[in-house]
């Protein structure tokens, strides 16, 4: 766990060009949008999370994201054993939408999520709020976030055990991709 304390997140600044981000946004908009849920029971709790999601299963996008996750896992020094991944979630946050602090892993889940990924699709200048914030390993302090994390096309990878949030949107629309990579329990 020392590696999580030393490197709580790893990112690839502006890895995707704006044209690709716009293509992915259009792809996501074509999918069936549903109210965002929480927990393994897929409950809706607008005090915890408000927004829309759709699911993307396109192989080319799955493979591209997986390559960044593998790189981050190695270069950050986490070296987690990863042997599965879930479908990509296309998230839309509009005025008032948010996701309160939460962890992406749950000991009751069938799969043990180890790494979470967020891809910033929208140009940060087109909306206000909607910041991805992470807390430290102990969950008591927000981590300083590098400015590059918020740039369009940036891919950020972080251990799923870390508390994180998307702050409320106050203007415009934020689109992002989220995916989770899992593996066997830590030994």
Would you write up a description of this structure?
With about 190 residues, the chain is of the alpha+beta class. It is built from 3 helices and 14 strands. Strands 1, 2, 4, 5, 6, 8, 11 and 14 form an 8-stranded antiparallel beta sheet that branches. The longest helix has 17 residues. It is globular, with a radius of gyration of 15 Å.
Can you give the helix content as a percent range?
10-25%
Task: Note the run of SSEs as H and E.
Answer: HEHEEEHEEEEEEEEEE
The number of distinct helices, counting runs of at least 4 residues, comes to: 3
Q: Are there runs of 5+ residues with pLDDT below 50, and where?
A: none
What structural class should be given to the helix and strand makeup? Answer: alpha+beta
Shape: globular
DSSP E strands, number: 14
Could you tell me the strand content as a percent range? Answer: 25-35%
List keywords for this structure.
14 strands; 187 residues; single chain; 4-stranded antiparallel β-sheet; alpha+beta; globular; 8-stranded antiparallel β-sheet
Structure at a glance:
The chain is an alpha+beta fold. It contains three helices and 14 strands.
Which secondary structure elements does this structure contain, and how are they paired or packed?
Layout: H1 2-6, E1 10-12, H2 18-30, E2 34-35, E3 49-50, E4 52-56, H3 59-75, E5 84-85, E6 88-93, E7 98-102, E8 113-120, E9 128-129, E10 132-134, E11 155-159, E12 164-166, E13 169-171, E14 174-182
Antiparallel strand pairs: 1-11, 2-4, 3-7, 4-6, 5-14, 6-14, 7-12, 8-11, 8-14, 9-13, 10-12
């Amino acid at each position: 766990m020392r590696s999580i304390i030393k490197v709580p997140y790893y990112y690839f600044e502006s890895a995707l060009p704006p044209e690709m981000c716009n293509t992915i946004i259009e792809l996501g908009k074509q999918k069936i949008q549903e109210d965002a849920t929480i927990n393994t029971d897929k409950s809706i709790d607008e005090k915890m999370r408000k927004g829309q999601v759709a699911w993307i299963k396109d192989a080319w996008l799955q493979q591209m994201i997986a390559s960044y996750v593998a790189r981050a896992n190695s270069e950050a020094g986490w070296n987690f054993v990863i042997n599965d991944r879930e479908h990509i979630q296309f998230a839309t946050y509009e005025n008032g939408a948010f996701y309160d602090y939460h962890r992406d892993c749950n000991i009751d889940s069938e799969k043990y999520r180890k790494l979470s990924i967020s891809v910033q699709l929208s140009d940060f200048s087109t909306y206000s709020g909607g910041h991805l914030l992470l807390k430290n390993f102990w969950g008591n302090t927000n981590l300083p976030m590098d400015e590059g994390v918020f740039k369009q096309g940036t891919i950020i990878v972080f251990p799923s055990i870390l508390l994180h949030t998307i702050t409320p949107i106050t203007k415009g629309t934020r689109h992002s991709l989220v995916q989770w990579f899992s593996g066997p329990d830590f030994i």
